[in-house]
Structures are given as C-alpha cells and as structure tokens.
Amino acid sequence: MISVLYVDDEPDLLDITKLFLERTGEFTVYTALSVNEGFQILNSHPIDAIISDYQMPEKDGIEFLKSFRSLQDKRPFILFTGRGREEIVIEAINSGADFYLQKGGDVKAQFAELALKVRQGVSRYQAEELLRRNHEELQATNQELAASEEELKANFEELSTSREALWESEHRLSDIINFLPDATFAIDAQGTILIWNKAIEEMTGFKSHDMIGKTNYEYAIPFYGERIPILIDYILSGLPHVEHRYFHIQSDGLRISAETNYPKHQGVPMTAWCIASPLFNEKSEIIGAIESIRDITVQKENEEKLKKSEELYRSVIENIQDGYYRSDAEGNLILASPSFIRLFGYDSLDEVIHQSIADTFYHEPSHRKIFLKKMENIGYLENEEIMVRKKDGTPFLVGVSSHFYYDQNGKIAGVEGIFRNISTQKQAEKELKEKEEHLEAIIQNSPFGIFTYQLLDDNRLVLTGHNKAADIILGIKSDSYLGKTIEDAFPHLLKSDLPNIYKKVAQTGEVITKTEMEYSPDGKLHRIFEVIVFQISKNRIAAFFHDITGTYTHDTH
C-alpha cells in the first residue's frame, strides 16, 4: 500500500482525488488544505509520495517543494496544478520536483496518469534507497570474491610446484593435499582413487577410508548419484561428452578449469568451480590426475545480485534528476547521466566524454584544484557551491556533492558525484534574507514594544529578540533575557495565560489580540497593555505591545 499526501486549497478536488486513488486499492491518501497542515501530516504519518497544487494561499507549491527538499528528503514530489506556464514547469523541475502534471482534460485519464506518476516516483525512490543500501554490501562481496579467487589460484600454484614432492613421496603429497582448504581428490592413470582429503569428506559426507582404492568412476557418485566420467577424466582420456556437463571451460594445455552444477550434493543442488591437473613422474609421464572442487553457489547468487544491482544502478543513472558524473584519476569525464548533459546544455555525452572536467565545465578551471584539495581533507564534499558554465558559456551556480572512489588496490581511481543547479535557490535565499533584514529594520524602529520568540521541540518558548521600544516601555534591559524561556525572563506572566497563547500562535499561525493588565505589588492596577501576537515563520512569533492605560481609563470613565 502506497501512502500519499495531497495538498490543495480546493476541498472538492482533494475529496475527488482521494476517492479515485483509494478505490484502486493501491493507495492511502492523506489530504491537507495548506502547506503547514501538510508538514504536520508528514511529521506524523509514514508518507511515500507527495502531490501538491501550485497556487495556494500563504505558501504555493514551489515554496512547499523547496522547503521539503531543504530537509534533504528525496521522497517523490509531484506538482499537480492548473497553471501550465513554462517558467513554473522549469522552476518546479529545478527545485527538485519528480513530475509535473497539469490539471484539466479527461478526468479519468488525468487521474490514471497521476496514479502512474506516483507509482513511478515511489518505485524509483525505493530503487535508489535499495541501491544505496546494497552498494557497500556489494563492494564488500566483490572484494571477498576477488580475495577468494586469488587464494584459490595460489593454492593451485602451490599444488603445481608440489610435483617434485609427489615423485619423492606419495605419503608426503597426501598429507599436503589432506589439509588443503578446497575439496580435493586424486586418481592414478587407471582411475583408482589415491587421495580423498578432509575438505571433500566434509563436502560430500563420504569418508576417505570408504573411497580410497575404489575404481569405476566411484568418485562421481557423491556428486551425480551415478558412475560417469567427470572433469578429472578429461585430463586422462579427453572424453568429449564430459564437456556437456561443464561450462566456462578454460585450459592452458595442462590444467583445465570449468564450472558445473552438481544435482546430488548431499541432496541439495550445488554450483561448483573445478580445476583438474595431470600428475607426472620423474620422466614427465602422466601417472594420474588431481581435481579440486570449490562450492561457488553463494558466489553465483551474489554475482546474480550484482548483475541486477548494476542494471538497477544503470536505470537510476539514466533517470536521476540531478546531474551524476564520474571522472578518472586524471580528471577526465568517463561517465555522466543524461540529466548532467542537459544541465550543461549539451546534446549528447559524445560531446564531452573523456574531456577535462575542469576545462569543460568549470567557469574558472583552476577552482577544481581547490575543490579536490578540500575533498582530500575529509574524503568527500557535500553541497559545495561552485560556479560552472554551460556549453554556450553561460555561468551558473551548482551545489556539488562528491567523493573519491577507489580501485581494488585501494588507490584513488577518480571522483564521482552529483551536480545540482542552485541558481534559483540562491536567488530565493537572497530575497528571503532581504525580507528578513527589512523586517528587522521595521521591528527596531517601531514605536511599539516588540519581543520575538521561538518554540523549541520540547515545547519551551525562548526569547530570541527585542527592540529598543520594548526596553523603554518596560524599563528593562532585555539583552540579559535572550535565550531564556518566557517563564524565566518574565516570571510575573506565570499568572497569566500569555505563555500558552504565544505557544498556540507559534503552532497554529493564528493572529491573537489581547489586553493584559499589570498590577503593582500592593495589588493596584498599574498599567494596561494591548498585545498583538502573530507567527513570523514556522515556530517563530512576534509579540507587539503598547501601553493603553490612558486610553483604556478614559474609555472606562
């Protein structure tokens, strides 16, 4: 079941969309009339995908998308709107939207397309998460497989160099083979079993004292359940029909290796890698053969997993929204996603493959050295801001997250990472900063007393700012109260409901006006304040107040 959050300021459309999606049996739909309500649902329910209208009061769909992506949340986000202007589409995609779907047209087809986009977005997100989790496991498996192969090769090199020891003493050779880690047995030229080591005892369950001295293909019974020629017989007789049971056959003229499937490995099928080699006497005459068998069932399963993972990885690269790239140790581009090519205004990968990343994409090529130097210190960089340029020379700002990748020897093989166009984001941040500075100027020059507070996760309301008028009106120095809770800063408010009102505004965004009385120690009315409190951003409020004692007293009279 896919959980979907749909945010739209049209209740009827929310109900229709919820009804359509949920009747398929695939979706559970949570609805919200505003962005703030949508975030409350995201915080309290396990949501798989987000659908949002564009034009809404307070915050539009693009602002919702930017706020959501700023949390480093990569869950699929679909903009579902009646506004179809090109600049809105471009801004949505640049801000991290997975899909853009325009309202209107055939209703049934429209909702079917919406359901398809949700499925695609969730599938792609789950695939990316699976790829990320499996990446380290697969790397470790590859290293283990490589080490195992090298170990096996080393064992056979040791076995080959032991031929002189065979000439001198069969008993000594038997002792050596008996303690090899791989299942190993040997036969003479007539097919009589000479050696059946401990590893092959453990693999087959057949003890050496029951096998040594046996002939007539006895060694095939533990694996195939019948007396038939196997790989070791190919060394002695070159039986052509043996090849029908083996694949990936390789030979250097003496030794032969292959893979096979054993149907009777203690009742369980097994995939094995086998290698057979002739045994010589001092006259270089073949007097027998030896074969080692390694169970590679798990290895083959891992190879299949790796293959599927690589296919999934390729699919992710081809469909990723941000620009993925990989360079070699010399800094030349060797791999890039289609989105990377589009980001820089090129038509195809062929235009830039094997080109210097610094010279082709950096606005100032020398800055790549600075980028690499920073990455050397910690091994990776996240959201590093870099000025790059498009194919036509147009500069633009990107956020780069990159890390080194290594070869099997542990040496740096190159750099890979993500380029994300953040020009729009930076412009939005600049505008937000200007608005905040403008708001701060208004606060500081207002004749009203003003306090600002922030509601923390533990429900404490902390004083974060004030203006000069607040200190003048109350006759205090508020700097000493900054960072304190409202109860610690103004203990006399414990007797009023103002702290709870302030917290309510911080949570709901309501605007509340209240008249607050101040009494002197002898219980007489001292002053009367009008207090106006409103939300300035999520969990942040401003409280305006001014002394209305004279006005209030006059009106009362």
UniProtKB/TrEMBL annotation:
Its EC number is 2.7.13.3. Residues 128-162 form a coiled coil. Residues 169-222, 309-346 form the PAS domain. InterPro entries: PAS, PAS-assoc_C, PAS_4, PAS_fold, Sensor_kinase/Photoreceptor, Sig_transdc_resp-reg_receiver. Residues 256-308, 382-434 form the PAC domain. It catalyses: ATP + protein L-histidine = ADP + protein N-phospho-L-histidine. GO terms for biological process: phosphorelay signal transduction system; regulation of DNA-templated transcription. Pfam families: PAS, PAS_4, Response_reg. Keywords: Coiled coil, Kinase, Phosphoprotein, Transferase. One of its GO terms (molecular function) is protein histidine kinase activity. Residues 3-118 form the Response regulatory domain. The modification 4-aspartylphosphate is found at residue 53. This is histidine kinase. The lineage of its organism: Archaea, Methanobacteriati, Methanobacteriota, Stenosarchaea group, Methanomicrobia.
